[in-house]
Amino acid sequence: MTWFILRRVASALVVIVGVVTVIFILSRLVGDPVALMIQPGMTDADVAQLRAVWHLDDPIIAQYWRFLSSALEGDFGLSIWQSQPALGLVLEALPATLLLTASALGFALVLGGIFGALSAIYKGSLLDRGIMGLTLFGQSMPNFWLALMLILVVSTHWKLLPPAGFGEPRYLVLPMIALGLFPLARLTRLIRSELLDVLGQDYIRTARSKGVPTGQILLRHCLGNIAISLITVLAVDFALLMGGAVVTETIFAWPGMGRLMIQAIERRDFPVMQAGAFVVAMVVVLTSLAADLAYAAVNPKVRYA
């Protein structure tokens, strides 16, 4: 187990360095941030001084080496527009993104578990067809369009929930639904499919013939058999939701990393873009590592070679 964790940490470091390197290169392609700072009356000397302050006139290799050596010490530099530590700005916005992502995933897991179990138990019934129809609806609907419709109907027309904001639980409901509907549909289909395989096994028929309640069969005999697939999909969905939160946060004015990154890209704020990519990569890698460790917890047959 120890060697497995060390190998995963080593591979995670390679992945993180690769991600921040790609972001470093791509961020230089979006344009010169000094071009957005030029004010009427500024001379060429003033513009050159601005570039010198931010080391933008250095060769690209020198810029990359300075960035990489500083990043190893946790220093991603100052935000070009806010003159604050870039990593601090990202970490300040991270809790809001994690709250939205975890809420959306929890919403999808709870409802997906209920819908998937009902659909598997009552296979071929009207309830099963209705749930499958709703999952198809959820998977085919773009989350940005759903977010706009929720604001229009629930907030503007019905006036039940606020259209945007942060701080109270009621502000979380609409972004959570908009972000969590797609993984809800996918988890419902996955759980239904996995349960149908397990429910057809001989030991399940034996348990039923002995009069074991359906709920007890699901919890004691089925949950452990579908846990590996479920953990894998949850880990992937968490990473996807972190990326998908960019659009949802922007629509609902949610003060998370997504909105911060959009503003950084618009302003060509390289340090914030790089710090944001680093933090997202760290969260995704740690989530993947946690999923690998969870395999052994739910299934002792798993071995780490």
Secondary structure layout plus pairing:
Blueprint: H1 2-29, H2 44-53, H3 60-71, H4 86-121, H5 126-140, H6 143-157, H7 169-199, H8 202-209, H9 214-251, H10 257-267, H11 270-298
Helix pairs in contact: 1-11, 4-5, 4-7, 4-9, 4-11, 5-7, 6-7, 7-9, 9-10, 9-11, 10-11
Give a description of the structure.
The chain has 305 residues and is mainly α. It is built from 11 helices and no strands. The chain has helices spanning 2-29, 44-53, 60-71, 86-121, 126-140, 143-157, 169-199, 202-209, 214-251, 257-267, 270-298. Helix 4 runs antiparallel to helix 5, helix 5 crosses helix 7 (169-199) and helix 6 (143-157) packs across helix 7 (169-199). It is flat.
Largest sheet: none
CA-to-CA gap between the ends? 8 Å
The radius of gyration computed from the alpha-carbon positions, rounded to a whole number of angstroms, is 24 Å
- What is the H/E order? HHHHHHHHHHH
